[in-house]
User: Fold these one by one.
Assistant:
Number 1:
Amino acid sequence: MEFVNSVFVKPFQDMAGAPDFLLQVLWEGLVAGVLYALIALGFVLIYKSSRIFNFAQGIMVVFAALTLVTLYEKGVPALLALPLTLAVMFALAVAIERVVLRPLVNQPDIILFMATIGITMFLIGFGETVFGGENKAMITEALHIPTGSYTFEPFGGLVLIEQKDLTAVVGAVVLVCCLLLFLHRSRLGRAIRALGDDHQAALSVGISLSTIWVLVWFIAGVIALATGIVWGARAGVSFALEVIAYKALPVLMLGGLESVSGAIVGGIAIGVLEKLFEIYWGQPLLGGNTETWFAFVLALIVLLFRPQGLFGERIIERV
Amino acid sequence: MLYRTVGQFKTSYAADHALFPVRQDAWLLGVILVFAFVIFPFTASEFAFKALLIPVLIYSLAALGLNILTGYAGQLSLGTGAFMGVGAYACYKLISIFPELNPIAAIFLSGFFSAAIGVAFGLPSLRIKGFYLAIATLAAQFFLVWLFEKWAWLYNYNSSGAIQVPTVSSFGVPVFGPNALSIVQYYVVLCIVTVITIAAINITRGRIGRIWKAVRDMDIAAELVGINLMKAKLSAFAVSSYIVGVAGALFVFLWRGAAEPVVFDIPLSFRVLFIAIIGGLGSILGNFLGAILIVALPVLLGTVPAALGLPISSAMVEHLNTMIIGALIIMFLIVEPHGLARFWEIIREKLIMWPFPH
């Protein structure tokens, strides 16, 4: 009875008892969720256009952020460092396409997946050699990201909203809108979606596979840079950031590998739910730190009922 | 020339599918076993035991376990590290609850615990496939490592949160713990790895192995020809996790001597996966070749440049090691997706044909 009470009654009493704290938790969850969604979006884009499950997205986030910070530390002005970093990400996209993907066209999915794990390892080793392993602070001031905070007082309590989190959310929304417009309204965007539907059909109407792949990996690089900036502003930039990439994986499972909207909904759902679970169930009952696995277990349970995720394309198998 | 097969006639179907269809293979294996059982133990230094011989055998065994699941049954798993952890913690609890238990028996028993956990986390494979399943195995990885950290009963409520290997003897000879000699530990590991490898070879070339391969190649087609998918997939998870669990127990009790939960985190899973990929998915020999490469690479990077007068720092060695492993994986996938084992196949065929090109 004690147990039932502590699992099913007490957490909700806590929530109702301190609505301002609940709001704060929800906001924190939302911000984390937006960032998960951003990383997941990088995965989805590449998966849609090339059926490659890109494990390297997480390390690309770290790589982009470290390039930006290191350039700034070397004396390049921040507003010049930004386009230079984008140029580096473009070069990386070209290199990956040329060296890794082109020789592996038409290989089974699992081989390409392993290749992206190889890219991850290579970039970790390369990055640590070039940038060093220590934690660096993101250059928030130089990029004119506001660092103050707003406070609200609903229900007689206190809710704190940091301006950089607000910037992150607004920035992510703008980025996603631009991306959706690009994918649905522009010529190149249509080419990407065509390639995602059917490689051979797209090739036969004259869409260049290698151009589109470079483009898609570059867009993933841009998303990685954006993610790196906003996440780095919260937690600093180091190779430890790579673990947040694992968080994007359950988001993908939940939302479905092919769905842009699934990545966003899944990301926000997981961000909010894992925060709620950690605060109201994890810390009092399980000793805390449940955020490492909660998202995976949640996604696993959802998958048992919908094997293609919430928004994924229905899996039809033929023999 | 050495591999001349002239005069070795097969007169029955069974002879054609024997373990060693070519007599020289058996001799070669015999030579390798003589080296492993006689020559290495009497020539190797303490460093060679601890840095090369024992870890190569243990990683080979872990990769063998993963290879049965991924290479033979086609179920990609990223949770190997956690299943190794289950084996190690099970072994720790077994020897602390039953101090009289023979340590070698404890290692073999601990595999059954990881097999049970493996089957539990393998259940989703009946509904989830491909990448979705790979991510689902990550649930096992993160959840189990969290459990190792939070469930104090597992490490006997000690303050460090890590497991320390006590000294345990088998028939008066210390096998576990700081008092055990490296050569004893080497022989124990070698015998266990040999026994399990022989078992794995026979499982994979028999009826069960053929069922797994059918499921790997196309599970719906396999189901249509009357294979029970549930049995096939779960048996693959059970056998694989058993071997991985034994490897995990060896990893802690006969090599490292102590372990924190973080040891079993995702980098360990990846290291085992890389050994399996570089060695060759769907091959037994490949696991050993891959493990030799992955274990020897950092040792070589640490000693060769220093010997050549190019001292590089240990941090640099680690970075270079990561980078080279990444590059090697990409190179292998491009040049030879079937790994080192396939290279040996090619060499062997050339040797049999030699001096003729075809």
Number 2:
Amino acid sequence: MAQADISIKPTELQGGHGHPDKWKWYDYFTFNVDHKVIGIQYLVTSFLFYLVGGFMAVLMRTELATPNSDFLSPELYNAFLTNHGTIMIFLWIVPAAIGGFGNYLIPLMIGARDMAFPKLNALAFWLNPPAGLLLAASFFLGGGAQSGWTSYPPLSEITANLPQTLWCVTLIMVGTSSILGSVNFLVTIWKMRVPSMAWDQMPLFCWAMVATSVLALFATPVLAAAMVLLLFDINFGTSFFKPDAGGNVVVYQHLFWFYSHPAVYLMILPIFGIMSEVIPVHARKPIFGYKAIAYSSLTICLVGLFVWVHHMFTSGTAPWMRIFFTISTLIVAVPTGIKIFSWVATLWGGKIRYTTAMLFAVGLLSMFVFGGLSGVTLGAAPFDIHVHDTYYVVGHFHYVLYGGSVFGIYSGIYHWFPKITGRMLNEPLGKVHFVLTFIGTIITFTPMHNLGMQGMPRRVAMYDPQFAHLNQLVTVGAYILAVSVIPFYFNVIWSWMKGKEAGPNPWNAMTMEWTTDSPPIIENWEVLPVLTHGPYAYGMERADEVGPAGEPLPTSRP
Amino acid sequence: MQGTVDSTPVVTGHEVAAHEEHQDLRVLGLITFLASEFLMFAGFFAVFLVFRGSHVQWPPEETEVELLLPAVNTLILVSSSWVINLGTKAIKKNDLAGMRKWFGITAAMGAIFLAGQVYEYMNLGYGLKTNLFSNCFYLTTGFHGAHVFIGLVLILGVLWRSRRANHYNDITHTGPEMAEIYWHFVDVVWIVLFSLIYLLTLI
């Protein structure tokens, strides 16, 4: 069904003949349809929001350094805790991991010139900046939403109505962006691989993005429905979630968590994909269990749609539901464990290069195992009821989101920065960044588990003085994390301008994105590449064994 | 094997490579998107069913639904799905006039449906805020109505574009095809909606 009027001709992409060889800086501020421009737009925007969300966290931790409320007003504290969560999820991890890496890498990995729907792709990105601005505006129009990132009614319906409305609109916008992006990813991966690439020759990042996109496609619209209902309750006098008029607040929780539990897989599946790319390259070994990793992504996607009630064990949930959702939740640990063991087995006996990308990947492994185990404990209803709404939960999800997702994004940046910019990041500075992040993460989030088990509730600005010491420790950790981003941002900006030239394939990696220039030319390749070997065919020839900068390594092998 | 993918040309010559085209994926993209869209309606339906199950009197006494007009409306909307299909069948045989005729009739039927919906709203005697049932009723039918409106705009867009010579023909007809798929989607959602909100009140 090839039709002349719609297909994307290379010449159309660049707006006619005589197009530039590469984009100028101002092209990155326009409605550009090149997937690489869009990927960079997503990444840069989300890294800016990361600073905003992080700044809020630092202010909150400063408040929590003492048991009394003496730094932020209670309303401002609530607004920060709401928007810290919202920004970090919807404007940092999701756009960075899915929008940024997904858009930049997928066409390059499968040998396509662009995504299937470039204009839709640009539209999906450009929904994000206005969404962020709306959230910022909500601070000046009534002090920001106050009811936490979950915005449970009735709280969300009786506090700060206008900011809460803006918050709902923000979520609908980023949700729409996410759905449009997923449509694009699915169709692109399905239909636009180079003819020589079969499904089981795709890089595992693409498999992870398939699972991510399916989840986003099926879960996000339900969140949109919840947001619409909440919006109507707040502004148009309906009573869906107003118990006094026959409504039901638990219905909101079901709708919300039907999206927001899969959302945690949205934030970690692309990261799993990044792990599966980074580890074989820097361990110089074929990935262990390609199919197991690929299919476990799909399993997580499928099972992940049926576990949402484990967030609601204390919401008057029926006993049979507690049992069902405890079991389904614990099942998720199986495919996740398969991935963890596969990565460990890939590392085993490899010629590991301790690059910063690899350090973050290995750091992620240890962090994620810890966070995953605390997740298993939370999945069990009896324990969950004990620690529900305490700092144990905060500790758990920061371990998987910071120690998991953020470590993974860092790892991906160190790995693909040479491809994206054509220049290497500074490795010593990267290692400083890693050490600070690793130590900071442990100091910040580990004591939270203790605090939670001792009974400290989450979302409070004031607390019992007996918790003061551990809280001070957490605050110190948060400051270390705040400092840790300085070498990173400095490294990125400095290396982008002055870093060492990377060349097409600085890591001697075997996936397709490394066969073109760094940065890739506008249509990715002069002529499309043909697949001649699998994505992880390392160690087949001694000639592959060269260091990060191409220097020969000692060839001795155990 | 030096660790790089062999860049043997798939098509010979630079000039050819610069003009390679990929197949039209828009239909596939639309179906993927509609799968997602359906889940949003599923969310509304689930909310409706939960409330229905947890209230003794549903719908409450002063907010009964009208049945005759929506039933006629249902007939119109469901049969319009056949009509629009005749339209795309026509264009696949390169019959532009036929396509314009059938698409025109579909648009008229869609407009009648929307008008009927508005008429129904005006004569119900209760509004969005009256009670929980009316909340659900207006929200769900209203959202569906908005989708009918979008479908109508798509159909009118196809009609508008079809004025251009040879814009749609037996080979190039993705636009009409997508409008048809969207219209079927709107139709399917309505059938579920009609069964849940109207027919279930009979039981």
